[in-house]
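Let us work through a complete example step by step.
Step 1: write down the sequence.
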Amino acid sequence: MPHQVVIGPKEAAGELVSVRLRDGRRLDAQPGEGVLSRVTALVAERSTALWD
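Step 2: predict the structure and record it as tokens.
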């Protein structure tokens, strides 16, 4: 199962996203641009890491 990004009313109001990882972890809501930058970096590195 891929990562899931959740954008509900609470997140949308704060321009945030909540990330759920394959290993079951749910990260705190974060700015969408930061999440996109991190995911882009992981892809560019061809990293197998889920997140830091």
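Step 3: interpret the result. Residues 32-44 form the longest helix (13 residues).
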